[in-house]
Amino acid sequence: MKIVAPAGNKERLYAAIKAGAEEIYMGLQGFGARRAAENFSIEEFIEALDYAHLRGSRIFLTLNTLMFKEEIEFLYLNLKKLYEHGLDAVIVQDLGLAYYLHQNFPDLELHGSTQLSVANHVEINFLQSIGFTRIVLPRELSFEEIRSIREHCNVELEVFVSGALCICYSGNCYLSSFLGGRSGNRGMCAQPCRKNYQINQKEKSYFLSPKDQLLREEEIQKLKEIGIDSIKLEGRMKEPNYVFATVQYYRNIIDNLSTEEKSSSLFNRGYSKGYFYEKTTKIMNPHFSSNVGERIGIIQGKEIHLEKEVILGDGFTYLSSNFEKLGGCYLNQIFIKGKQEKQKKALKGEVLVLKDISHGSKYLYRTYSKAIQDEIEMEKKQKEKRKEITASFIGKMGEKAFLSLQTENEWGKEIIVNVLSEIELETAKKKSSTKEEIFQKIAELGNTSFVLKHVNIDLEENLFIPTSLLKSLKRSAVEKLKKKLLNSYLRISAPEWKLQFVPNEKIDTLDYYFIVRTEEQKKYLEEKGYSKILYRSYDIAREGELERQNTDSLLAANLYQILENQNSSGILGNWNLNISNPYSFKCLECLPQLDILILSPEMSFEKMKKIGATKQKKAILAYSKLRGMYIELDLTHGKNTVLENQERDIFHIKTNDLGHTEVYLEKALNILSKQNLMKKLGISILVIEFTYENLEEIGLVLQELRKQNGRYQAYNYERGVY
């Protein structure tokens, strides 16, 4: 089982590999789901490929966002350079991008991002059939569900085990996008889940903010036993020391070595084991959403009753009883109650006295542990990941010394280099060379990226081999091996393939589809003469809930509902399938039962123009009180709840029949006055979605639909997204 570690810049890359990560995921500047990270230029990425390959690690490029047509095609030249230099894999969310990559680089590994939210073996096996080689599972799956998927799939599986948890299913979170155009599906999330909300016009809390995930030895061994291929660590925005300590912790667990968990001392907003064992609101932290460190003690006046040892150089944060940050300090002198002299440390159970504590402080939290930071810095200097090699040496009288070095690249290709000495070997005049001496000299690979695992030595007796000869022979072989190893990753790409734009056919009339939540809504629409009415479906098909999925409906909100659908044609793909480019339409042509696709509401009208004609009919969400989040947990115990943020935006919280939480915006999307524009964009179907509207509100919407006017609210259709 491998470790997949994050690298937001070069320092984090070096830290991850030093600590023992076999696989690194990292982004190009301007691309990926962490566009705010420093990320890598093309030149830096190529350097990183060489650095990793020389040390036996692989590099994955994160392109795990939704992309528009021109962005996919613009990517080609940059990706071509990385592919030709040995890029190991690409992590993808967008099915259109996956299709494009598979056509242009058929031997490049495609990894399905957790952003795809494929949560069952049926969907995963489908993705494998269209070219994916690994799937990163959603964090919301339990261990039993992961085990079931493993039993029904042979594709590589990757599981997140540490770091930040999104409260919403990744890829199904639109709140940041709808509120301000910063799309989480495009790497620009404004993190509304980490904000403070007023609940039902009463108390305030970080209602949508979960603790971070941290699985420990017991959970890792369970994943190892069932054959999970890789465990993934979150943290491209976290500090290099956090990356190093977290990788090292899991490296030691996998290698069955004793280990100490340090991550929670470096970054801490509360930790849980996520959904691994159960669905529980215990994973939430309503008190604070940012890193406040680890709790050290309770403040009473100027005295702190210590719950942990502290030393000079530690950094602290003062928190109020409501966990509001009130300031902080670095500990540059230590006074302990009952002792006259200054101390270098204060022990658990002692009372620390601080002079300038902020008024109203209740808790002392440590945000900087000098002891742990110093320990990690020392370990980083001492640690080095090296690639294992084997060697063969032959020494015969009157012949040139022969040294061969062998290894494999990370794609399983054998690399062998052979070198001969410049002079022939002679009989020893005094002391003859031994196999042990030769082994020691060949094994001295200090400044290289290699480590000698095994050597075969065929040495004739009574020979003397000068140390200078062995060093020269080894130096030459190592240089040749390094060059040949890096060259083994080089490959040539074919000319670019891309879709040709085909103009839309003329649309004369629009068709109307309705999505409803209740029987009352459906009956009302039927009385008004409308017939194409579909019930809301569940956004996610989790492995443990497949029997609850409706496969009779013509409305499909996930791949499972398409693949297992009882209808052979006429299926409407819902808007949360995130269709935003013509390549996605092309990819899904392999599902002939899928006749209609709703365009992503993260597309602008301008972007829609560039899609052109498609085999499937194009639909658009024309009215909806938009669903901003789809959450596994029941956060309100089934009670209708209203949230209000600091900007006075209102959100309605509903619980569906599966006990999943859905977050809706109060201000409805409404483009019913733009029906003529829809025809020009090649869109033939308007979709009107009703959630918690009463019959009077529905009647008003139908009136606007008929008159093609009303309360225009376009959201991303006008402004686009970042």
Folded structure, characterized:
With 722 residues, the chain is α/β, with parallel strands linked by helices. The strands form seven sheets. The protein has an eight-stranded parallel beta barrel, surrounded by five helices. Strands 28, 29, 30, 31, 32, 33, 38 and 39 form an eight-stranded mixed beta sheet that branches. It has a seven-stranded antiparallel beta sheet with strand order 17-16-21-13-14-20-18. The protein starts with a strand and ends with a helix. The relative contact order is 0.11. The model has no long low-confidence stretch (mean pLDDT 96).
Task: Identify the notable features of this structure and list them briefly.
single chain; 722 residues; eight-stranded parallel β-barrel; alpha/beta
Choose one word for the global shape.
flat
Question: Please, what is the average pLDDT?
Answer: 96
Tell me what portion of residues adopts beta-strand conformation.
25-35%
Q: Output the structural class.
A: alpha/beta
